[in-house]
Design goal:
It is a single chain. With 380 residues, the chain is an alpha+beta fold. The protein has three domains: 55 residues; 180 residues, no CATH class; 49 residues, no CATH class. It contains 18 helices and eight strands. The strands form three sheets. The protein has a four-stranded mixed β-sheet with strand order 3-7-6-8, sandwiched between helices. Strands 1-2 form a two-stranded antiparallel sheet. A two-stranded antiparallel sheet has the order 4-5. Strand 1 and strand 2 form a beta hairpin. Helix 6 crosses helix 10. The longest helix is centred in the N-terminal third of the chain and has 23 residues. The N and C termini lie far apart (47 Å).
Length: 380
C-alpha cells in the first residue's frame, strides 16, 4: 500500500537527520523519486525511513514540515555565529533528560525532598572567584583531593559522584539513550543544563575525552548555580561573546584551576609544553584548560596561546578513544546514580510501573533492570 506523503516532508526528514544522502540512498534506492514526487513509498518503506532518519512517524502526515526549536536556550557558536538546526540526536537526548527530570521532580516532591540551596544562588555578575569557591565548598571537591586521585578518569568519576550526592542529576553518555548506534557528536555540543530547584540536571557528552568532560561538568554546574537551562559548546578557549557563557567558562576554569594556586605552582620561564603536561596531571584537568590558565596568568601572548591551543587540540583529537567499561557502572553515570536508584526503589515499592522504569532507563529486558538494582546495592 502506497502512502500519500508530501515530497517536501521526505526531503525535510532527510535533511533533518544530517545523514549523508548517499548513505540513505543505499538503503532507500527510490529516495530521489520520493523527494521529487515521482513516486510514493509503501507504508513499510516509510516506517523504515522514519526509523533510519530518527523522525517521529506522525510527522510524515503533517501538511508541511514542522519548525523544530531547541527546547532550552542555545548558546552554541562556531566562529561567533549561532549553530543552525539541532540534530535529532541532540533533541532526543534533551527530551529524554527532560522526561527523567520531570519524573524525579515528582518523586522528590512525594518523598519530601527540599529544593537545593545552591540553585539560582548566583548571577552572571557574581564574583567569579567567590562563585567557584562556593561550588567547590558545596561539593566538597577541592584541589588537594584531586591531587591524590591517580587518574583523570578517577577524578571525573569522583567529580560526578560529589555533584550527584549534592543533589544534581549528572548524566554522562556518548549515545542517545542506550542506543549505541546513535553516537553523539562533540562538534555539535558538549553538554547542557536543565535548571530546577528540586531536580537540577546536567548532561555531559560522553564522546569527549575524560579530561574535557571535567571542564564541561564544571561549566554546566555554573549554569545550575545561575538557575539557567542551556545547551553549550563549552571550551576553555577565547571568552565567548555571550555574557552568561563567558561567566560560566570563567567559573569553570577557576573551579578546576584556582588562579591563586596556579600562580604558586606555575614555573615561569619553563618550557610551556612541559608545564602544561605537569600541571594537567597536578589538577587532573585537560591540558587545554591549563593552557588557558597560563594565558590568563599573563605568561602567553594571544598569538602563542592560539598556536599552542590549536596544536594541543589536534594532538588530543588524534588520541584513541578509551573503552566503555562495565555497562552497569557506566549506567550509573549515563542516567545519574541518584536518578537510577530512586527509579528502581520507586518501582520495587509499586509507585512506578516497570514499563515506565524500562522506558526511562532505555532497557528492554527485566533481567537488565534486576542486574542494575543489584549493582546499585538494592535487593531486586
Amino acid at each position: 500500500m502506497k502512502v500519500d506523503v508530501k515530497a517536501e516532508l521526505v526531503r525535510w526528514a532527510r535533511e533533518r537527520s544530517m545523514i549523508e544522502r548517499d548513505v540513505l540512498e543505499e538503503r532507500f534506492p527510490k529516495l530521489d523519486a520520493w523527494e521529487s514526487g515521482e513516486a510514493l513509498p509503501t507504508l513499510k518503506q516509510l516506517e523504515n525511513f522514519a526509523r533510519a532518519t530518527h523522525t517521529p512517524f506522525g510527522y510524515f502526515f503533517l501538511s508541511e514540515p514542522p519548525v523544530e526549536r531547541m527546547p532550552i536556550p542555545d548558546f552554541r557558536t562556531v566562529a561567533g555565529a549561532r549553530i543552525g538546526r539541532p540534530s535529532p540526536d541532540l533533541l532526543d537526548t534533551i527530551y529524554l533528560c527532560q522526561q527523567r527530570q520531570e519524573w524525579y521532580r515528582e518523586f522528590a516532591r512525594s518523598t519530601g525532598e527540599r529544593p537545593v540551596s545552591f540553585a539560582a544562588s548566583a548571577t552572571a555578575t557574581s564574583n567569579v572567584i567567590e562563585a567557584a569557591a562556593n561550588i567547590r565548598h558545596t561539593l566538597g571537591f577541592d584541589v588537594e583531593e584531586r591531587r591524590r586521585i591517580p587518574t583523570w578518569t578517577d577524578a571525573l568519576r569522583r567529580f560526578i559522584e560529589v555533584a550527584d550526592a549534592a543533589g544534581v542529576l549528572v548524566m554522562v553518555s556518548g549515545v542517545v539513550g542506550s542506543n549505541n548506534r546513535r553516537k553523539l557528536d562533540t562538534d555539535e555540543f558538549r553538554g547542557f543544563a536543565l535548571a530546577d530547584p528540586l531536580a537540577p540536571l546536567v548532561f555531559i557528552n560522553g564522546s569527549d575525552t575524560k579530561a574535557a568532560q571535567m571542564f564541561t561538568l564544571a561549566h554546566e554546574l555554573a549554569h545550575v548555580w545561575l538557575g539557567q537551562s542551556a545547551v553549550s559548546d563549552s571550551q576553555p578557549s577565547l571568552a565567548p561573546d555571550n555574557r552568561v557563557e563567558r561567566w560560566c567558562n570563567e567559573v569553570a576554569a577557576e573551579l578546576l584551576v584556582p588562579m591563586a594556586i596556579l600562580r604558586d605552582e606555575y614555573r615561569d620561564g619553563a618550557n610551556v609544553e612541559h608545564e602544561m603536561e605537569r600541571l594537567a596531571r597536578r589538577f587532573k584537568v585537560s591540558t587545554l584548560v591549563i593552557l588557558r590558565r597560563i594565558f590568563d596568568v599573563g605568561s602567553l601572548t594571544q598569538q602563542h596561546f592560539h598556536q599552542a591551543y590549536e596544536s594541543e587540540l589536534q594532538r588530543l583529537l588524534a588520541l584513541p578513544a578509551g573503552s566503555g567499561g562495565n555497562f552497569y557502572l557506566t549506567l550509573g553515570a549515563r542516567a545519574s546514580k541518584r536518578f537510577a536508584r530512586a527509579l528502581v526503589v520507586s518501582t520495587l515499592e509499586g509507585r512506578s510501573s516497570f514499563t515506565e522504569a524500562l522506558r526511562l532507563l532505555g532497557f528492554k529486558k527485566m533481567t537488565t533492570f534486576r542486574e542494575l538494582g543489584q549493582n546499585l546495592g538494592l535487593a531486586v
